[in-house]
């Protein structure tokens, strides 16, 4: 049995996500944690721009903070870019798949 590194598994899973998303025109935006954007600011952007409920915005913000990243939205490419624009304004890095 061939063993794969965590990086390889991550690359393969990212590639699979991209293939699935592109075949259904569904895109995913993943936000990454940083040391300079306050928790409350990320929470407010997720609540107001995605939009998420207070509970869901808190859960996703906490996941970003504790796990280093989290999926914040799955849907249209246009809305992913709208969310990305808001994350850019608060200096939160993200990826769109």
What does this molecule look like?
Helix 2 packs across helix 3 (54-67). The protein has a 3-stranded antiparallel β-sheet, with helices on both faces. The N and C termini lie far apart (30 Å). The chain is built from 4 helices and 3 strands. With 97 residues, the protein is of the alpha+beta class.
Characteristics:
97 residues; alpha+beta; three-stranded antiparallel beta sheet; 4 helices; 59% helix
List the helices and strands and how they pair.
Layout (H helix, E strand, L loop, with lengths): L5 H19 L2 E6 L6 H11 L4 H14 L1 E7 L1 H13 L4 E3 L1
Antiparallel strand pairs: 1-2, 1-3
Helix pairs in contact: 2-3, 2-4
What is this structure, in a nutshell?
With 97 residues, this protein is α+β, with helices and mostly antiparallel strands.
Number of distinct helices: 4
Radius of gyration: 14 Å
Which oligomerization state do the chains in this entry correspond to?
A: single chain
pLDDT under 50 segments (min length 5)?
none
- Series of H and E elements: HEHHEHE
- Kindly report how far apart the N and C termini lie: 30 Å
């Amino acid at each position: 049995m061939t063993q794969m590194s965590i990086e390889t598994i991550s690359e393969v899973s990212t590639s699979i996500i991209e293939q699935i998303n592109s075949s259904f025109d569904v895109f995913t935006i993943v936000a990454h944690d940083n040391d300079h954007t306050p928790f409350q600011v990320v929470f407010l952007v997720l609540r107001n721009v995605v939009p998420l409920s207070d509970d869901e915005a808190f859960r996703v913000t906490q996941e970003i903070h504790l796990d280093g990243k989290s999926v914040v939205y799955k849907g249209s490419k246009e809305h992913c870019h709208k969310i990305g624009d808001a994350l850019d304004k608060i200096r939160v890095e993200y990826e769109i798949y």
